[in-house]
Specification:
Elements: H1 3-16, H2 22-25, H3 41-50, E1 57-62, E2 65-70, E3 76-79, H4 88-94, E4 100-114, E5 124-127, H5 138-141, E6 153-168, E7 175-191, H6 213-220, H7 224-237, E8 240-246, E9 249-254, H8 259-272
Parallel strand pairs: 3-4, 4-6
Antiparallel strand pairs: 1-2, 2-3, 4-5, 6-7, 8-9
Helix pairs in contact: 6-7
């Protein structure tokens, strides 16, 4: 191997140790030796909002994990902009002993902020024509479907306007997203019980009538695989019950089971896992 090649590999492997991924952050670590991951302005703003601004603190080590914030009541706060799956191990470990609130921001609207490559000033901003719906969060809720609901777990879904900072690419056409900032919080939807999942789905249809994932996809105007993920979350939590089968499709109906029973089943499943 050429000498310069070996130097490059050594340099790359050395710099890799200076970063921590979301998987590293949500794994048991020695807090004193853990590297601080690069966080977005969005994550930092929400940490401040749920921590010091509410009388709590930020970056607290509990049970071998680094917690984003702790509020004045002692509840643990975890901010998660991406999928919730990486939090699953941390939640399994901490939920039996701590109340945890997972804050999940959803960019219902995006404001595109344009900057030059080496200029920190905002050159222009505009609202993106693309919109997201509240039920799009099921794409990320799949990761904790085996845990939710749990008596000690609350998931706050925040409807937000996110400012996306873009700069031109250096060599290729297009742009690079350098930061995401919190524009405003329009609404908050807390999820604690199995029935709370129905708050995420439009109620312009009687969901107590039997339905399949094909019909769910058609009503929401989303692909079939996305409707299947919604059905999986609803079924694992106990929010729907399986009432039959039509050809190759399972038929669901909104469950009449009390939420207390759903929570007890989920809690027992978590302990046994």
């Amino acid at each position: 191997m050429p000498k310069d090649r070996s130097i490059f590999l050594l340099s790359f492997s050395g710099t890799r140790q200076g970063f921590a991924t979301s998987r590293d952050r949500n794994s048991p670590v020695d807090i004193k030796d853990e590297c601080t991951p690069v966080e977005t302005s969005l994550h930092r703003s929400l940490k401040q909002r749920y921590g010091p601004d509410s009388g709590g603190s930020v970056e607290v080590a509990i049970g071998g994990y680094r917690i984003d914030a702790v509020d004045r009541f002692g509840d643990l706060i975890e901010i998660q902009s991406g999928p919730l799956g990486p939090l699953r191990g941390k939640l399994r470990k901490l939920l039996p002993h701590h109340r945890i609130r997972v804050v999940k921001p959803i960019g219902i609207r995006r404001r595109v902020v344009r900057r030059a490559r080496f200029d920190p000033r905002d050159l222009s901003s505009r609202l993106s024509p693309k919109r997201s719906e509240l039920y799009d969060v099921f794409e990320d809720l799949v990761g904790v479907a085996v845990i939710f609901p749990h008596p000690n777990l609350t998931i706050d879904i925040l409807d937000t306007i996110i400012e996306e900072v873009r700069i031109p690419r250096r060599r290729y056409p297009g742009y690079q997203v350098t930061d995401r900032r919190l524009g405003s919080v329009e609404n908050s939807t807390p999820l604690h019980l199995a029935s709370d999942l129905w708050k995420l789905i439009p109620q312009d249809w009687d969901w107590r009538e039997p339905f399949t994932t094909h019909e769910l996809a058609k009503r929401l105007k989303r692909p079939l695989h996305f409707a299947q993920r919604i059905a999986y979350c609803l079924r694992r939590s106990g929010a729907v019950e399986l009432v039959g089968k039509a050809r190759n499709s399972l038929v669901y109906s909104r469950a009449d089971t009390r939420d207390e029973n759903c929570r007890a089943v989920a809690s027992d499943r978590l302990v046994r896992a």
